[in-house]
Amino acid sequence: VVYYASNNELVRTKTLVKICIIQIDASPFRQWYEAHYGVTAGSKKRNEEKTKEEVKKSNHVQRNVYGRKAVSKIGQLLDDQFNTGCLYACVVFRVGQSG
């Protein structure tokens, strides 16, 4: 827990509650984004993209990725979070609650 508007005690004890801001690792999200859209997330990774070897993909997968590139724009703030290696997320449900 990084931020909770009502009570700093919950931040200190790292208690998950509704509407709190948490910090999570960006690696799995970056890998999914790169595989799904074919675009590298984060400015630091763009420089390494040129040296990276291209993985052989079928024509069908290449067409899907090419079609997704048009809608693959992410905001500058999210791009900066990918660079730092951590993403901020808001918990919008109570822990243990289902349905």
Largest sheet: 2 strands, antiparallel
Please state the structural category: alpha+beta
Please compute the radius of gyration using only Cα atoms: 18 Å
Helix and strand element order: HEHHHHE
Number of strands: 2
Shape: elongated
Provide mean pLDDT, rounded.
80
- What is the strand content? 5-15%
Terminal CA distance reads 23 Å
Helix share bin: 40-55%
Q: Kindly report the spatial arrangement of strands forming the biggest sheet.
A: 1-2
Number of helices, counting only DSSP H or I runs of 4 residues or more: 5
Give the uncertain stretches in residue-range form.
none
Task: Write up what this structure looks like.
- This protein is of the alpha+beta class.
- Helix content is about 40%, strand content about 10%.
- It is elongated and about 55 Å long.
- The two termini are about 25 Å apart.
- The model has no long low-confidence stretch (mean pLDDT about 80).
